[in-house]
Write the structure tokens for this entry.
Amino acid sequence: QAELSYFKPYFYNADTSLMSKVFYRDFGSYQVPLAIERRVGAEATVAHRMKYNKHVTGTFSLGIEHIDVSEGDGKKIGSLYSKYNIPISERAKQLEGGLFLSLSPALLYDTRDNATVTRKGTMASLRFDEEIGVIVYEDGGFIVHADKFSIDIIYKINRTDVEVIGNKYDNPKLMEIQE
């Protein structure tokens, strides 16, 4: 695993900061049994201390990540699937990775006297993380796909303009995607 981070404490003004990082992670998957996940991505977070209360900070993070899921132990998983009469073709559905966008707004309440050696104070954080799948086509079009969205929109980039082609129910190209 590797990560390179950059922190700018005064981004535009004294109440705003910027944290950015690029990373590579290679580990055993905690979601797919006996699989290996390789993740490459980048994330940027902007934090702004609120003027009405110096203890409250709002943040917004935007990230992009490519996840590659591969077989970790093919013989062992094959024997488990055959033991329980599950077709090995079902395994391919578990090994799907892809490109994902992450959006994460957050609020932080911090009254600590010192961030590293705290003697008194409270810290509370409320964060919402949303991961959105992105499917890219060879012609330059892409789809933003998430379970919480009822309509997926594909954009076709033609030099300078962005064209909305339609939703997944009207476009046969989008119907190929299995939900």
Summary: The first strand starts at residue 2 and ends at 8. Confidence is low (pLDDT under 50) at residues 146-171. The CA atoms of residues 24 and 171 lie 36 Å apart. The radius of gyration is 21 Å.
